[in-house]
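Morning!

This is the sequence you dropped in the shared folder:
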Amino acid sequence: MLRLAGVLVCAMLTLEGLARDLPALPVGVPDWVSGVALGFVALVFVAFGILFWVNTREPATVVSRRRIALLAVQIGLALILSTDLLYLVAAEVPLVMPPRAAARWITIQLALTTVAGVLLARTDGFEVASGYATLPRATAVVLTLVGVLAGQGFTYCAGYMAATEARSRSALARLNAELRGTQALLADSSRLAERLQISRELHDTIGHHLTVLSVNLELARQLAGSAGGGDRALQALSEAQDVTRLLLSDVRAVVGALREDRSIDLRLALEGLAAGTTEPHVHLAFPSGVAVRDPAQAHALFRCAQEAITNTVRHAGARNLWIEVATSPDGGLELSARDDGQGAGAVEPGNGLRGMRERLEEVGGRLRIEAAPRGGFALHASLPASLGPGEGAG
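The structure's back. Tokens below.
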């Protein structure tokens, strides 16, 4: 709505600019020059409106040099056409820059507006507001300048509120996605822990008892045979032994089935994380054949992806982020993340990157970071092969 309102204001200022009387042409200049001048004025107004629309179309979470350059061009056009366009620039500033940079920008803009107004007031080109025409010249100039500054401050505050709401909504969506992903990992970890406990209990208690029972029944059958017992006793003991063997086989099958489904659905957790990030657009590649069996490794990879998205949103100014999970040649796991942002000349790890490296090292993994000016940012996390929960020697 703020964007549409700005375009409407630009359209009205365009009509106002075209309705004004152009200065009289010097003698000997053809009349068609006036038409060309009006066309030029209309074209510049339209160019301002297009730049305003394009620059405010991107989310407020994206900060880039290109957007700041477009903002500077709009200021130049406003100074050429009409200072009323500076109201739109003031509303656009917080949508293009981080809060602190936007505050510095609007402070400088208001200061320059004041200086330009004072200098222009010394000439006949300064137009005081219509309501102050009867006041002394100095008073009318001061009140007009105050009104202009107040108007720019008001539109800046409106843009600031819109930008804050957009950033908060984006951050909330990202946090919700992270929460859903964490919940999915916790659910998988809990399910694996329960199945492992059940399989151990079945193997250590029922399986052991049934094995002892089978041995005892075998001994009873041998004793009954040696004592010359009846055929019916032998048949009953043989059937009991068969049932015991079947029960033991069933227990082993249950244990095996419980141990087979060990993979954690890391893909679902990462998909939820990617879906909750609107800007940049996250492209996730997770082949169906990749299985994550260790909850600690799954948690480490999830946190790496989460930190990569957070850093890209805050610092990269990127439009796209590619995250890929794959199996390494030695049977381990790899996670790669790269963006198309502005990159950096030198990377100084903050708390997020240090925590990511420490979390990977706790599970035997490594982290590699690559960055170059205007070349984007990339990280590569690798984890060794894991036996998975419940597996081991013996």
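Headline: Residues 137-226 form the longest helix (90 residues).

More detail when I'm at my desk.
O.
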